[in-house]
Amino acid sequence: MEILSKLFGSNGKVKIIRLFLYNPEKVFSLEEVAKKAKVGKAEVRREINILVAGRFLKERRAWTKRGKVSSRKNHILSEDYPYLEALRLLFNSDFFSNRRLIANRFKKCGRLKLLVISGAFVQRLDGPADIVIVGDDLKRPVVDNVVKNIEAETGRELTYAVFDTSDWLYRFHSSDRFVRDLLEFDHEYLVNKIGF
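-> structure tokens emitted (196 positions)
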């Protein structure tokens, strides 16, 4: 992400571009962009104005509950932007080259025994989960916060599951469908202290 933030001028702009690239049909308000990308509203407003001027984003007027056009502006990715595929390729290559750094983020979540990435991290969106965390004394709020930060940086909503080691092993030995689907699907171990 550091390379792209230097190239594009700010980390906030990179997060905003990612959010729109990976959610091409979704219309976002300024508040939604700020919340999902974890960027301040003033920076979001400034960067969105630049992206609209560069024709990367289009403005869409919001509707009130009474069916009238609101003064608030929402934004959506401009599908006719000429460099869209090149940007997707660039941002995807950065995303996949940095995925191994994910394990470092979960170090303070408890005693991690297994960390599996799948789904979006292996270029497949139809997997059972994107991240599976297995360990002992896991701090769920810390795990949730780490995942939200990864979502903000990657611009993607991630599905994840958290298991105690004993629960995971029970599910594994009893041929639990979720575990079986995950292990039959493309996946990668970032931490493997259980010995799978």
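The beta strands are 28-29, 57-63, 69-77, 111-118, 131-136, 160-164, 187-192.
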